[in-house]
Predict the 3D structure of the following.
Amino acid sequence: MNPKLEKLVDLLKIHLANPNHRILILVERTFYAKKICEFLQSHPDLKNLIKPCCLVGNTGSNAREVNKNQTTTLEGFQTGIYNVMIATDAIQAGLNTPQCSLVLRYDFVPDNIGTLQGRLRAHTGDCKYCLITTKDSANYNKEKDSRKYEQDLKEVLETWKGISQDEFKERVQKVQESLVAEWTANLIKLAIAQSVNAKTFE
């Protein structure tokens, strides 16, 4: 055992005390998804509580068969045949799991967009989102940065609500013109530099 797995088991025991609850665990790689699924299946404290399944991506020659199995697994999770699903982060963006009572990200944090997508899986009112990681680790700090990013985004959206449509279009157009002017100037500099280099080479 290690502290992160112990914490995972503790959280599962709490949430699975309610037979209607379902838990989504997001991991970084297929290997972790399969190993955690095996670990949970054989854990004595979860024996009468857990019905786990595993959902991982595949782009190999048997991708069609895997996709069919994925659909069956997802339907089983949504209907309650399984109450815990361990999925790789690569496929979580397309998951629609409104039945979740808990979304757990196990010991990894992707970029800001990936973190927001994981949190969106917890879109029902009473669903919780948790990260299991070591305090002050790289993942811990990435999660803090992602949450600040999310808060900043909310503030920007609130600011936009107070701007009229005409003013918004005008501001966007100014930014576009500025970017195009900057790109044009850089292209001219590049063309001049290439021309000078060609003459020097000759």
